[in-house]
Amino acid sequence: MERKGLHVAVVGATGAVGQQMIQTLENRKFPVETLTLLSSERSAGKKVVFKGQEIEVQVAKPESFAGVDIALFSAGGAVSKALAPEAVKRGAIVVDNTSAFRMDENVPLVVPEVNESDLTWHNGIIANPNCSTIQMVVALEPIRQAFGLKKVIVSTYQAVSGAGSQAIEELKTQAKAILAGESFTPEILPVKSERKHYQIAFNAIPQIDKFQENGFTFEEMKMINETKKIMHMPELEVAATCVRIPVMTGHSESVYIEVEKEGISAEQIKRVLKEAPGVVLQDDPADQLYPMPADCVGKNDVFVGRIRKDLDRDNAFHLWIVSDNLLKGAAWNSVQIAESLLKLGLVNL
Amino acid sequence: MERKGLHVAVVGATGAVGQQMIQTLENRKFPVETLTLLSSERSAGKKVVFKGQEIEVQVAKPESFAGVDIALFSAGGAVSKALAPEAVKRGAIVVDNTSAFRMDENVPLVVPEVNESDLTWHNGIIANPNCSTIQMVVALEPIRQAFGLKKVIVSTYQAVSGAGSQAIEELKTQAKAILAGESFTPEILPVKSERKHYQIAFNAIPQIDKFQENGFTFEEMKMINETKKIMHMPELEVAATCVRIPVMTGHSESVYIEVEKEGISAEQIKRVLKEAPGVVLQDDPADQLYPMPADCVGKNDVFVGRIRKDLDRDNAFHLWIVSDNLLKGAAWNSVQIAESLLKLGLVNL
């Protein structure tokens, strides 16, 4: 007998991404019969409205996942490592928004516009890529399909909401203090658990996540490694510099690419992007039309503009890619994976 | 008979850069005997303090330059085009901070750390490069000297003060309005004379100056063409994407370079930059040390950090370059050119 809907759990339900996940499930009319909202002890007991009904957030524990079909995790890597296998054990499919399982070769790392078919070989856990990676590969995959792809160099302009609700508050509080000529003490950014914290209001911080031995940050290495995995291109040259700027929501990326084919024009790149799934082309210099983070908030699409052919290399191009990091970069991509699981018959009503 | 000092004129004395020029002349103890402050009719009559004395700003006209030894221009391209030749006719050497003469082959384009000797063939006018270009070439020239340079790709994170005092006010006003939940109307950025204006507070605008036919902005083409001219490398591959971010003062740049020599390490690049004139190396990931615009304000140096060897190409590196766009990017480079003119005997006490 067909059910009316699925039993969905959201882990990290009170966080910046969790809230967007719940909203996105409602907006997309995802067939939810039961919604279980889970969090740490600290946030348990809060009430969240879903489709007009109040749902109380409960403490996440192994038993919480009994009967759950799909569990969307966004409560930090440690929670995912501890509880995702417990959810799988109880029959749930986990869509994990943390970096805990992304590079695990038994776990597909999925952006539906790019590699939806990787969902078919999942073993219970599906990883949602890093926000900066998702919006970039959505724009690069149609170019790769049409013209091949050899090299990517990206510099990011990342919003503070990528670091959570506390970082949004910190930006607001600091900006107010600076405009009022008052003092303040940075406490959250660039990385809460790091020893040093820096001003983000009216500043730019070239550190997102901690540093690795090779001088790149983990955020930069996520973009590099995840792009290769999602696009099935271990040989692709990718380099990233990740920078936090004083924007609440909406990541921007300045991207240089080299394609395989020679003789391609910027017009041909634009034509491909115009037809690409999940992409909105915003590129008309004569009308000052280009994507900006302030315009992308609340939208599921990836916006691309400033497309130019390089002046020196025939096969090189420059792009400017913007998207809502909480939606396509996190909540929407996770719900979209859930929609794909239904569509592909990997989960059934 | 040796004079006590020179007769210096500052054109655009009440602007963001002009004010910094006057302050820099004082801070550097530049030998000024007479300081003539000039502006448009709108700002004439204002009084500016120099070395404890009030000087009244006068309307700039051809006769204003009688007896002037060095005239520092920063009042827009149209003013420079009209009055710089008049100043030269009256015997002054002009250091022009606008783009009016930069690509004129009879005009040297000078960053003293890079090409001071180009001052010797001046014909009355010396051009001060674009702010974004200056800080980049100060960091790249010592690398070029040591290891050769083939390719540069830069993405900028530019402060609003590069667009003048009105843009600083606009950022503050907008930020206050947004934090208070009030409405506002963008009027200055990205380009005052353009048809459309966009929010800069908590946003990023990928347009600085107007667009050219080829899809690049004039700002981007300035970085490309000026870098080649200053470094005497017409064959250098340079590409730029210029972006305005909500920072008052201090431009940041994410720069990818390919050097000629193979087998160079990031340590070797750091060692070269540590000894380079005008450069301060701030690069210690273990101590979260890297340059940020909020730290560079009021300083003459160019700060470089986040130096990493590319993971794919042996001869490629990534750098993060930050400097005060009103100082090394404008006022300090202009006064530094004046100091070089004295040092080289091209102007005499």
UniProtKB/TrEMBL annotation, chains A, B:
Substrate binds at residues 158, 244. The lineage of its organism: Bacteria, Bacillati, Bacillota, Bacilli, Bacillales. Homodimer. Keywords: Amino-acid biosynthesis, Diaminopimelate biosynthesis, Lysine biosynthesis, Methionine biosynthesis, NADP, Oxidoreductase, Threonine biosynthesis. Residues 7-122 form the Semialdehyde dehydrogenase NAD-binding domain. The active site is at 131 (acyl-thioester intermediate), 251 (proton acceptor). Phosphate binds at residue 102. It is an enzyme of class 1 (oxidoreductase). Belongs to the aspartate-semialdehyde dehydrogenase family. NCBIfam families: asd_B (TIGR01296), PRK14874.1 (NF011456). It catalyses: L-aspartate 4-semialdehyde + phosphate + NADP(+) = 4-phospho-L-aspartate + NADPH + H(+). This is Aspartate-semialdehyde dehydrogenase. GO terms for biological process: 'de novo' L-methionine biosynthetic process; diaminopimelate biosynthetic process; isoleucine biosynthetic process; lysine biosynthetic process via diaminopimelate; threonine biosynthetic process. Catalyzes the NADPH-dependent formation of L-aspartate-semialdehyde (L-ASA) by the reductive dephosphorylation of L-aspartyl-4-phosphate. NADP(+) binds at residues 14-17, 42-43, 161-162, 325. It comes from Anoxybacteroides amylolyticum. It comes from the Bacteria. Its EC number is 1.2.1.11. One of its GO terms (molecular function) is protein dimerization activity. InterPro entries: Asp-semialdehyde_DH_CS, Asp_semialdehyde_DH, Asp_semialdehyde_DH_beta, NAD(P)-bd_dom_sf, Semialdehyde_DH_NAD-bd, Semialdhyde_DH_dimer_dom. Pathway: Amino-acid biosynthesis; L-threonine biosynthesis; L-threonine from L-aspartate: step 2/5; Amino-acid biosynthesis; L-lysine biosynthesis via DAP pathway; (S)-tetrahydrodipicolinate from L-aspartate: step 2/4; Amino-acid biosynthesis; L-methionine biosynthesis via de novo pathway; L-homoserine from L-aspartate: step 2/3.
